[in-house]
Amino acid sequence: MVLALDGQGLITIDGTEYPLKAGDTIVMPANIPHAVFATGQFKMLLMVLFPENR
After folding, report:
1. Residue 54 — very low, low, confident or very high, per pLDDT cuts 50/70/90?
2. 48 Cβ partners below 8 Å, 6+ apart?
3. How remote is the C-alpha of 39 from its chain's centroid?
4. Burial 15-54, CB ≥16 within 10 A → b, else e
5. Rounded distance, CA 3 to CA 27, Å?
6. Which residues contact 18 (CB under 8 A, 6 or more apart)?
């Protein structure tokens, strides 16, 4: 999951583009092609969650 902290960016997930601005979040599913582009000044927080195997 990406949380845009400041500025603007562009997330591409499986060929679809999603513009992000400060405060926006987006989930990038596992095993799906993705990319992150800064369209100007851009700060983001990337959170990676791994399922617990029991």
Report:
1. low
2. none
3. 13
4. eeeeebeeebebebeeeeebeeeeeeebebeeeeeeeeee
5. 9
6. 10, 11, 12, 26
Strand intervals (E) in the chain: 2-13, 16-21, 25-26, 34-46
CA-derived radius of gyration, the chain: 12
pLDDT tens digit sequence for 14-52: 999 999 999 999 999 989 999 999 988 999 999 998 888
pLDDT, position 51: 82
Two tokens at 21?
């601005």
Token pair in block for residue 8: 């603007």
